[in-house]
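From the shared-data thread, chain only:
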Amino acid sequence: MSKVSQVARQFSKTLVVALLILSTVGIALLVGCTTNGGGSTDNGSTSGNVTIKIDITAAVEAGDATAMSLATRYGGNVFTCTVNVADNTTVLVATKAATVLTVSTVSSSYGDYVDSIDGLASGAVNSTAGWTFDINGTASQVGADVATVKTGDTITWTYVTVWQ
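Structure, as tokens:
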């Protein structure tokens, strides 16, 4: 076997071990965060980065097992990632563009409701617990399937256990 083949083989083994270690400690989760996501640019709109934050503090404080597992995987109670989407993309499409997140919705007469993010479902902590979102710190007056974002916006999804 040539020296180049030996080096390539060793590099491959090292890369596999490194990826296994990274996925074990949850760092690989961040790799899928910076992504090109949904939203159409056919209408001449521009695209750019939108930040998505997932805050599970209330569920962790309530002792929810799923939330505590997510906090370990996220490296804390708040997970943040960036996606690249077209301006005027809906919050729901932008959130789903973060390919590292598993987002489940339920359709209702009010539109699509985000029922679960990464397995933390509405009602997991108590009967009124669930997901809410804001854009740049302002609560939305419409659903995630209607509200839109633009370059530089921050979407914060918060799991609430008590509605105020």
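The longest strand covers residues 47-55.
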